[in-house]
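G.,

No rush on this.
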Amino acid sequence: MTTPLHKRPEAEIKRLISALEPFSTPLELTSDESLHWEYQGRQQFYIIKSGELSVLREADGLVITTVDGQSLFGVAENLHPLRKHILRAETDCLLLRLDASLGHELICTAGLWQDMAAILAYHTAFLLYRDTQVVGQRTYSVIRSLLLEMNNLILDHRLRVSVLEYIQERTLLSRSSILNVVSALKTRGYIEITRGSYLLQVICLPERL
């Protein structure tokens, strides 16, 4: 059994945003709009104030994670630039943009690197947790994990993206592989899905199918 991921370090995130927000520039994104880590040639920190944003692998569009609520991105990319990922708005979003060099200075001045370390540690733990769910697992196990993940979203979120799209964007599994498993689960009464393949609820998922 996989150890559940710990909760986000909300208090640390709030302290960092409070320190950075007064020096940041508002930025609005519309749904499906993409964002890179640089602005006018300078590395950026991005603060999500409202809306839903995904981190994608640029080469193939694989969704690494989707975040809603206040969050801070760009620190790891600034410290160790990879230029391999982009941000994509899933809904209309309100963000704040801040030059990373100024962000580092503000964090040092406010003595908030311990809070930053907590956020980076959480991000690392999330990536390790995600790998245990999808890397080297059987197709059904991967789909099962993502259905459970979807079930934890509020209904409004679940009704915005189909089961097929949600799973395919996060795994790159074939359409037929996903639909075969989802169809079997629906037929056997393990999940409830609307017409159009939107998840209403997970009733109970067996360990094996």
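When you get to it, here's the other one too:
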Amino acid sequence: MTQSQTPAESPVQNPAEGAPASRRVALVGALEEAQRARLLDICERTPVNLALRAGVAIETTEEKA
């Protein structure tokens, strides 16, 4: 699993303003749909993600490799 986001792509301006953030996750390898769903679910529950949720909306989508 890899995650990528360059500063130029980052839509986050000021977390205090509640600006939305996005994350693209590339899952590499032969994974079943249930495995992909589980990994994306884990991305949603990282400590950083949970901390940011209080003020920033984060949307996770899979980036097809």
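The helical segments are 33-44, 47-53. The radius of gyration is 13 Å.

Enjoy the weekend,
O.
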